[in-house]
Design goal:
Number of helices: 1
CATH class of the largest domain: Mainly Beta
CATH superfamily of the largest domain: Cupredoxins -  blue copper proteins
Order of helices and strands: HEEEEEEEEEE
Oligomer: single chain
Strand content: 25-35%
Helix content: 10-25%
CATH topology of the largest domain: Immunoglobulin-like
Number of strands: 10
CATH architecture of the largest domain: Sandwich
Distance between the termini: 93 Å
Bound molecules: copper (II) ion
Number of domains: 2
Length: 196
């Protein structure tokens, strides 16, 4: 003997209310459109990945992380800032839990600088705030970034890929000095500003 609620089924809709079937049809159309957009986006990701190959950031240059310290480009004696014959600079760094070696490098302002990094263990990040430098450092690959510093100063270099318990303490710095303060580096020499 349920008493019918006076407000519910009998109440007629206000004039401006959109009928339920129109709402349902509109929702179905938008849903179809969104599914279509998702399919297109997935197709773009898959097709460009297959056509262009999925690369690690920067360049594809492989290196054996288990032997890189024994010799070759990333041996300890070759790390730091090197000056090329054309006057440009190449900075080589090794990232590992939880630091960069060397942890301070010096370069000249308004000079082409090429950073080359690799990792000995897990993925690390190489970021220089206020510059175009931001890349992952993936073990097994050499990350390469080219830049030119417009202003002198000390650029902090935090690892920006979570790499383990000591990640928050993993950072280094790049000291960008005016050209007249930059001591030329002999071709066979490597310079750093690590405190002895
Ligand atoms: Cu790290």
């Amino acid at each position: 003997m349920a008493e019918e609620h006076p407000d519910l089924p009998q109440r007629s809709l206000p004039a401006a209310t959109v009928p339920a079937e129109v709402v349902a049809r509109t929702e179905r159309r938008w849903l179809g459109l969104m599914i279509g957009v998702l399919i297109v986006m997935m197709a773009v990701v898959v097709l460009t990945g297959m056509a262009n190959a999925i690369h690690p950031p920067s360049n594809v240059e492989t290196i054996d992380p288990t032997t890189l310290h024994l010799g070759g480009e990333f041996a300890e004696s070759n790390l730091g800032t090197a000056q090329e014959r054309d006057g440009s600079l190449t900075v080589r760094l090794v990232a590992g839990q939880y630091g960069f070696a060397p942890d301070c490098t010096k370069v000249a302002v308004d000079t082409p600088v090429k950073f080359r990094l690799t990792s000995t263990d897990v993925i690390h990040g190489f970021l220089l705030p206020s510059t175009n430098v931001n890349t992952m450092v993936v073990p097994g690959f050499v990350a390469e970034v080219r830049t030119r510093f417009a202003r002198p100063g000390i650029y902090r270099m935090p690892c920006n890929e979570f790499c383990g318990a000591g990640h928050h303490g993993m950072w280094a710095r790049v000291n960008v000095v005016p050209k007249e303060q930059f001591k030329p580096v002999a071709l066979t020499e490597r310079s750093t500003c690590v405190q002895q």
